[in-house]
Amino acid sequence: MLCVHKAPEHVCDRIVDIEAKQLEELKALLVDSQAKVKACEEVSANLENMLSTLQDQKDTAHARILEAFKTYMALLDKRQVLNIRNK
């Protein structure tokens, strides 16, 4: 049984003819990818700094709330002691 191979319906180029163009495209992709990686690293570093600042603000707010609560409780205890003495 003999099969007849039909000519392909797509365009084929020889590798020696397109090698330079393909290398240039790959180099351009590499440069673009490296630029994107650098941009991502910079954004990531900025995000880390912002998250650190936000954590510091949260810790400060928590400490102030705790301090206010302890002061309030101390005032309530003091008032309770004064009310007991005055009775």
Question: Could you characterize what this model shows?
Answer:
With about 90 residues, this protein is mainly alpha-helical. About 85% of the residues lie in helices and about 0% in strands. It is built from one helix and no strands. About 0% of the residues are buried. The mean pLDDT is about 90.
Q: Which short descriptors sum up this protein?
A:
mainly alpha; 0% strand; rod-shaped
Q: What's the overall geometry?
A: rod-shaped
Give the distance, in angstroms, between the N- and C-terminal Cα atoms: 118 Å
- Protein structure class: mainly alpha
Binned strand content: under 5%
Radius of gyration: 36 Å
Mean pLDDT: 90
Count the helices. How many? 1
Query: Which sheet architecture does the biggest sheet show?
Result: none
Q: Topology of this protein?
A:
Blueprint: H1 15-86
